[in-house]
Amino acid sequence: MKKILVMILALALGLTIAGCGGKSETMSKIQKEGKIVWGTNAEFAPFEMRSGDKVIGVDAEIAKKVAEKLGVELVVEDMDFGGLISALNAKQIDFIGAGFTVNAEREEQVLFTKKYFKAVQVIIVKEDNTDINGPDDLADKKVGVQENTTGDFIASDELVSESGEVIRFMSPMEAVLDLKNSRIDAIVIDNLPAQYLVAQNPGLKILEEKAGEDEEYAMAVRKGDDDLKKVIDEVLEELIASGQIDEWVEEYSLLD
């Protein structure tokens, strides 16, 4: 009788999982291997940056909470920002967390989680620059951006004309060095990283007029990984409700 009951319970459990769509291939792999791979680009303080051989920042803290909730090890893959979606869909990483802005083009390629931070694009120039006072002044200028970011899209599609040039960099710091050396005229980048960069590099300033509309960050998983999305959404909901994300933003923004 006990064997029959066990068989009935197992069958019922199997039907329940099947009815819910079961585990995704990604979730099964995570649980089998005991690790989850977070893909990022550690060039975007205060959300992700390097401290020695570690990646720290707001997204790093969120990623750790996701791994904790799943009861697995967090593995970090620090790579070029422009390669994150390809790496995700090639199954080299399990999710993206990189100050990753939600937009229609990316929504065709990935499944976004709950949004957890609102940002805006700003313009950095040298303090003695009097020619650039807002986005309308960028049309014929050399404008630096981090490739494949929102700043890149806005500068390329809206701000810089054929008489100007968009210069793409692998990291914001490379753009800052070229700005300080007058090889470019301005940088378009998210507000918080801009504040961090200006604080670390005397002689630069952020213009008051923003470069584009507000944007929102989310994590991203592969399409079909709805169960992993659900876990990340639960983590984000808890962190947003407790105010922890705002605390991390402040904490990592103050780091020298």
Helix-strand pattern:
HHEEEEHEHEHEEEHEHEHEEHH
Helix content estimate: 40-55%
Which superfamily, in CATH terms, is the homologous superfamily of the largest domain?
Periplasmic binding protein-like II
The unreliable regions are 1-20
**What Rg do the Cα atoms give?**
21 Å
Q: How many structural domains?
A: 2
- Beta percentage is 15-25%
How far apart the termini lie comes to: 67 Å
Structural class by sheet pairing and helices: alpha/beta
Shape: elongated
Read across the widest sheet, the strand sequence of neighbours is 10-9-11-8-12
Description of the structure:
The protein has 256 residues and is α/β, with parallel strands linked by helices. The chain folds into 2 domains: 25-118 and 215-253, Periplasmic binding protein-like II (D-Maltodextrin-Binding Protein, domain 2, 3-Layer(aba) Sandwich); 121-206, D-Maltodextrin-Binding Protein, domain 2. 41% of the residues lie in helices and 25% in strands. The chain contains 10 helices and 13 strands. The strands form 4 sheets. A 5-stranded mixed sheet has the order 10-9-11-8-12, with helices on both faces. A 3-stranded parallel sheet has the order 5-1-6. Strands 2-3-4 form a 3-stranded antiparallel sheet. Helix 3 packs across helix 9. The longest helix has 18 residues, at 2-19.
